[in-house]
């Protein structure tokens, strides 16, 4: 086993899973001190203790030292071998199973044996991404990045408070990560969705679908939402229902997700559980902004099922306005694997506004790998590659249209990266294509959405260190 690297010390637990995962793959000990000492419940949370338990199950010679009433923690990583057999981990209910699956995605590709792990607990939790949204996004983005196939099979649903859910996670072994570019989101072509109901009448799902379609059909015709009723053992131990919407793009394979959940407690309180509140004020055009503001208005006669469908649909529109070539809930995935990509070329990803989780990940990658990302706004990156033409009058545009086209082509050839077209390299996308006979969005709404997406985009670029160059455990 390779010698341990220099220890890294923190005085909080922000980005707990990121620190443990980076410690495991770089073979650097990590310590966290004074964990929540100023709160009513100091020390590690049950979910964080479960993360450490999972690490111990898939590692050899790992040392986890918890002291002072779990307020001090020291982790000395060992050999990430995995197991050549399936095993089960029972997860505490303070977080959903997606919380633990995201940690497994960060470490499972680096194991010696393919992963085959069953997790039991809450499949859909108000503090985490829904299982359907996570599974759909994971399949889409792992294919774009070139990671080994990862499978998430929902055996049983489980909601608060009693749970009873079970999920099987499988993952192959990662040999290498080729430098990749995730820069083009593409035109939104269709919306697909799933409404699951556990031990509840199917009419709840039908009303939720109608409410969501009332919002989405004003912009898009191709909207299909399917019902997934669960009863008996497959429905878990607690009643509830939830909605997941997925916007799919043309050709690029990028997806954007939004979800909502109503469990037994929420149904009793007549309140909606949501990961984030809607913030439609950043929209770029009045056309789309007025629509969301109008649909966001609270209706006094609205039932809880109608509220769920409407707010999840609005949340999907807000996610589309963020722009970029990756959903905000999955920003961490390409950024994490960009760091370990081969160092022969740079990797690039275009995102919307960076989330707090993404900012923490960038800091932790710098701590463990001494790797910094170049972050530019989309407009700044565009200006650095091609000098933008000055504004012209309509007559000047008509007279010099051919000349500008020739100059633009020469500039693109001169400033392109690795032979790529500048427009493609920057993720310049088209929401509405004039060549389409039947555009999915109304033209006014499409222009507003396109402008909003451009204003919020960032370009992250880095040259990875390569799997062979990180100081991780060698087999």
UniProtKB/TrEMBL annotation:
<feature type="compositionally biased region" description="Acidic residues">
    <location>
        <begin position="426"/>
        <end position="439"/>
    </location>
</feature>
<dbReference type="InterPro" id="IPR000228">
    <property type="entry name" value="RNA3'_term_phos_cyc"/>
</dbReference>
<dbReference type="InterPro" id="IPR016443">
    <property type="entry name" value="RNA3'_term_phos_cyc_type_2"/>
</dbReference>
<keyword id="KW-0436">Ligase</keyword>
<dbReference type="InterPro" id="IPR020719">
    <property type="entry name" value="RNA3'_term_phos_cycl-like_CS"/>
</dbReference>
<dbReference type="InterPro" id="IPR013791">
    <property type="entry name" value="RNA3'-term_phos_cycl_insert"/>
</dbReference>
<feature type="domain" description="RNA 3'-terminal phosphate cyclase insert">
    <location>
        <begin position="186"/>
        <end position="320"/>
    </location>
</feature>
<dbReference type="Pfam" id="PF01137">
    <property type="entry name" value="RTC"/>
</dbReference>
<keyword id="KW-0690">Ribosome biogenesis</keyword>
<feature type="region of interest" description="Disordered">
    <location>
        <begin position="390"/>
        <end position="442"/>
    </location>
</feature>
<keyword id="KW-0539">Nucleus</keyword>
<dbReference type="InterPro" id="IPR036553">
    <property type="entry name" value="RPTC_insert"/>
</dbReference>
<feature type="compositionally biased region" description="Basic and acidic residues">
    <location>
        <begin position="390"/>
        <end position="425"/>
    </location>
</feature>
<dbReference type="InterPro" id="IPR037136">
    <property type="entry name" value="RNA3'_phos_cyclase_dom_sf"/>
</dbReference>
<dbReference type="InterPro" id="IPR023797">
    <property type="entry name" value="RNA3'_phos_cyclase_dom"/>
</dbReference>
<dbReference type="InterPro" id="IPR013792">
    <property type="entry name" value="RNA3'P_cycl/enolpyr_Trfase_a/b"/>
</dbReference>
<dbReference type="Pfam" id="PF05189">
    <property type="entry name" value="RTC_insert"/>
</dbReference>
<dbReference type="GO" id="GO:0005730">
    <property type="term" value="C:nucleolus"/>
</dbReference>
<dbReference type="GO" id="GO:0004521">
    <property type="term" value="F:RNA endonuclease activity"/>
</dbReference>
<feature type="domain" description="RNA 3'-terminal phosphate cyclase">
    <location>
        <begin position="16"/>
        <end position="375"/>
    </location>
</feature>
<protein>
    <submittedName>
        <fullName>RNA 3'-terminal phosphate cyclase-like protein</fullName>
        <ecNumber>6.5.1.4</ecNumber>
    </submittedName>
</protein>
<comment type="similarity">
    <text>Belongs to the RNA 3'-terminal cyclase family. Type 2 subfamily.</text>
</comment>
<dbReference type="GO" id="GO:0000479">
    <property type="term" value="P:endonucleolytic cleavage of tricistronic rRNA transcript (SSU-rRNA, 5.8S rRNA, LSU-rRNA)"/>
</dbReference>
<dbReference type="GO" id="GO:0003963">
    <property type="term" value="F:RNA-3'-phosphate cyclase activity"/>
</dbReference>
């Amino acid at each position: 086993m390779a010698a341990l690297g220099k220890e890294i010390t923190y005085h909080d637990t922000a980005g707990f899973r990121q620190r443990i995962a980076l410690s495991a793959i770089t073979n650097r000990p990590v310590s966290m001190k004074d964990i929540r000492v100023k709160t009513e419940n100091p020390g590690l949370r049950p979910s964080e203790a479960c993360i450490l338990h999972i690490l111990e199950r898939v590692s050899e010679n790992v040392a986890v030292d918890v002291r002072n009433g779990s307020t001090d923690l020291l982790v000395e990583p060992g050999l990430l071998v995995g197991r050549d057999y399936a095993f089960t981990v029972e997860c505490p209910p303070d977080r959903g199973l997606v919380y633990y699956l995201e940690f497994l995605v960060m470490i499972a590709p680096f194991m010696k044996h393919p992963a085959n792990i069953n997790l039991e607990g809450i499949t859909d939790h108000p503090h985490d991404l829904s299982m359907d949204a996570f599974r759909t996004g994971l399949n889409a983005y792992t294919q774009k990045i070139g990671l080994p196939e990862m499978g998430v099979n929902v055996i049983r649903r489980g909601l608060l408070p009693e749970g009873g859910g079970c999920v099987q996670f499988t993952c192959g072994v990662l040999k290498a990560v080729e430098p990749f570019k995730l820069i083009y989101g593409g035109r939104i072509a269709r919306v697909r969705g799933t409404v699951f109901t556990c031990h509840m009448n199917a009419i709840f799902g039908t009303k939720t679908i109608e409410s969501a379609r009332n919002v989405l059909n004003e912009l898009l015709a191709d909207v299909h939402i399917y019902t997934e009723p669960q009863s008996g053992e497959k429905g878990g131990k607690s009643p509830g229902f939830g909605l997941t919407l997925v916007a799919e793009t043309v050709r690029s394979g990028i997806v954007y997700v939004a979800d909502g959940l109503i469990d037994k407690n929420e149904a009793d309180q007549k309140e909606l559980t949501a990961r984030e509140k809607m913030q439609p004020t950043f929209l770029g055009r009045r056309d789309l902004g007025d629509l969301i503001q109008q649909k966001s208005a609270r209706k006094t006669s609205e039932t809880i099922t109608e509220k769920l469908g409407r707010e999840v649909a609005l949340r999907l529109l807000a996610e589309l306005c963020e722009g970029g070539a990756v959903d905000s809930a999955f920003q961490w995935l390409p950024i994490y694997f960009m760091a370990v990509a081969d160092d022969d070329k740079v990797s690039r990803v275009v995102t919307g506004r960076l989330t707090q989780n993404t900012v923490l990940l960038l800091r932790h990658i710098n701590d463990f790998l001494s790797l910094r990302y170049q972050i530019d706004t989309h407009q700044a990156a565009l200006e650095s590659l091609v000098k933008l033409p000055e504004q012209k009058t309509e007559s000047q545009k008509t007279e010099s249209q051919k000349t500008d086209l020739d100059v633009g082509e020469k500039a693109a050839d001169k400033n392109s990266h690795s032979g790529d077209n500048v427009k493609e390299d920057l993720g310049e996308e088209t929401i509405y294509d004039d060549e389409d006979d039947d555009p999915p969005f109304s033209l006014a709404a499409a222009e507003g959405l396109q402008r909003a997406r451009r204003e919020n985009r960032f370009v992250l670029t880095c040259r990875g260190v390569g799997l062979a160059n990180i100081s991780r455990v060698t087999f």
